[in-house]
Amino acid sequence: MTALLLALWPLFALIVAGYFLRLREFPSDAFWPGAERLNYFILFPALLFSSLATAPLDNPALPRLAAAVMLALGLAWLGLLALKRLRGWPAARFGALTQGALRFNTYLGLAAVGSLFGKEGLALAALMLALMVPTVNVMSVWALTAERGVSVRSLLLPIMKNPLILACLAGALVNFSGLGLPGGSDRLLGLLAAASLPLGLLCVGAALKPQELSGEVPALGWNSALRLLAVPSLTYAVARLLGLPEMETTILVLFFALPTAPTAYVLTRQLGGDSHLMAGIITLQTLLAAASLPLLLTLLNG
Residue 263's closest CA among 229, 234, 286? Predict the structure, then answer.
């Protein structure tokens, strides 16, 4: 438990620092949107590209890891669809609740994996992201727009333009080509990647909205319990069923136990979802994850 806390507390300290910096308007309110764009389009793709370009893709557990990712997502999605039918949620509400249950804070996830497992863990996490990011994005858009219909083009075009997906694909292609990262390009990418996670965690904190925690307490509570406890438990069962090794199991469960992504708020607003509910879900899950993640990882490695 002590080792886990030592690995994780600096990550949450950065999130808290980001919140208070934004609260104090330092360096300015205009800084944070630009920082988020820089990270999303340049720094974070550099991390994913370099991780996949040099990843050992001959790991015999990779096919089972991919199967576990898709099976866990599929089962969670079916459960959400059943709840929608049972409760009669409109798309605006269902879209927010779905993103609360399925999306994940990528910055926190990769920072945690890097702290716990180093470069080997980051390579596995990047491979998982190549599967999870497009799948979860399709599910999220469909959930928010199901009532008014959605075309295949509107589902797939954002994914095809997503810099994280493009970075994963490019990194995998470089890996398969055997070219490597010559001429100091590995050092350049390493410098860009090193800036990504600290800046991303500061931006996560800056995006928190504690004022949005009122008015939807029951929905916020059960959705957070679903994301932080029920979905990781389901994922652990899937990992055991498929016989994943210990490190792959831990990384898989960790990603399904992360709080939802701050970018879910932007997508919810763009597609007419319940942005008040979405902001509350993001904030509460991020706060609760400071306790739930160490506890869950302790149980996994106990």
Answer: 286
